[in-house]
């Protein structure tokens, strides 16, 4: 009962978190939040610039295995545009984006999957998919999410299972944790822990 009251109070104070694309008017705070999430992750990437460059080809006969979330090259779409694209076409509420950010933050902080230029897009796409399945009443299927994200359904299926394992299948996020991140987000201080109008058609996203 106490947890339910906390949740009601939390969402009463931040009702825009439950808005989805297509519901008018979409608060500017929703777009600002998405940009804040992208900026926080981008800042972490830039702080590790020496670790995030594209790998150079070697003459070794047997190259080292790549982490599952690591793409072949840095995606041509910026992380901010990618975040807004995911939100716009999957119709998830901003709270899902914040929960997805929490998943990525947890994996990065625990060293289970580091955020880099080569992993950030796939990590976010997969995290949003899991957050939507956990928190939304209706969700697009994996085939649609894969099309939005610019990868194949088979890849997304593998990434989904891998992230579930890395998160120990724990997808529910504590309300206090969400509130703490939201306050930082609204203050423009969100950072990864160290320990728009609707388009008429969906443009294709390549090379993520």
UniProtKB/TrEMBL annotation:
Matches recorded under InterPro entries: Cyclin-like_sf, Cyclin_PHO80-like
Please give one Gene Ontology molecular function term for this protein.
Answer: protein kinase binding
- The region called Disordered is annotated at 48-67
Q: Which family does it belong to?
A: Belongs to the cyclin family. Cyclin U/P subfamily.
Species the sequence originates in: Dunaliella tertiolecta
Q: Which domain of life is it from?
A: Eukaryota
Q: What is the protein's given name?
A: Cyclin
Pfam families associated with the record? Cyclin
């Amino acid at each position: 009962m106490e947890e339910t009251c906390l949740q009601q109070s939390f969402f009463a104070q931040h009702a825009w978190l439950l808005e989805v694309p297509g519901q008018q008017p979409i608060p500017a705070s929703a777009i600002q939040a998405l940009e804040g999430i992208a900026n926080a992750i981008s800042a972490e990437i830039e702080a590790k610039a020496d670790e995030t460059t594209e790998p150079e080809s070697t003459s070794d006969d047997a190259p080292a295995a790549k982490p599952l979330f690591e793409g072949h090259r840095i995606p041509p779409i910026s992380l901010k545009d990618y975040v807004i694209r995911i939100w716009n076409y999957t119709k998830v509420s901003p709270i899902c984006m914040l929960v997805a950010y929490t998943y990525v933050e947890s994996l990065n902080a625990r060293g289970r999957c580091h955020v880099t230029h080569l992993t950030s897009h796939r990590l976010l796409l997969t995290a949003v998919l899991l957050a939507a399945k956990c928190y939304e009443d209706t969700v697009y299927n994996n085939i649609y999410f894969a099309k939005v994200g610019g990868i194949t359904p088979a890849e997304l299926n593998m990434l989904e299972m891998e992230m579930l394992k890395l998160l120990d299948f724990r997808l529910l996020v504590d309300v206090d944790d969400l509130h703490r991140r939201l306050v930082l987000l609204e203050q423009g201080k969100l950072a990864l822990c160290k320990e728009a109008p609707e388009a008429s058609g969906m443009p294709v996203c390549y090379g993520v």
